[in-house]
Amino acid sequence: MNNLTDKIAYITGGSKGIGYGIAKTLLGAGMKVAITSRKSEAAKKAAESLSKDQSRVLALQSDVSSSVSEAKAIQTVIDHFGGLDVVIANAGVGHLFPIDQLTEKLWKETIDTNLTGVFNTVKASIDALKKTKGYIITIASLAGANFFENGAAYNASKFGLVGFTQAVMLDLRKYGIKVTTIMPGSVATHFNNHVPSTADAWKIQPEDIGQVVLDLLNMNPRTLPSKIEIRPSMPVK
Hints:
By secondary structure, the chain is of the alpha/beta class. The protein has 7 helices and 7 strands; from the N terminus they run E-H-E-H-E-H-E-H-H-E-H-E-H-E.
């Protein structure tokens, strides 16, 4: 994986935030990138801003909570680019409510996107990644190790995602597939309807997560950082 030129990455939720930052970084490293959004126009707009060379970026509409949708998207990537080397399972939602206000609909959307959605992405990509001895990276959260008030649904999804990813890592390494979960703390994104601004300068930036992904892909193949916690170096003042 150390020669990344023309390697092919599939990034869910790549139209903004962390997914967009990762896509930008990987394109800068010479890779080809496919990004998804639940809205086709959002994916197309992001792809146009990511690269002047549209032959290197593919915009796709997909809802990770649908196994059919994810299987179709990944097959489109393989048909378009000729293979698949890296999968970044990034798409996620954040509904933060106390349990007495948390509705069944919000619970299901959180689990179906943040946990089952990653299952759908991983399952649809395994056969292709076995052929290339590829890499799966899931974007979890420090909320997958630290519970907090109003986090019942989000904590459950991210705790589950961390456990899922680590078990998958053990399942797939015998095929030469690497699996890592990245657990960021506060990131300057649109998470939970936040609008990034200069006030977020203290936070992790999306391109910082992109750099972590790039470092993983460039690492000596004998070594696997299977779980990475990342947080702002200085607390907010």
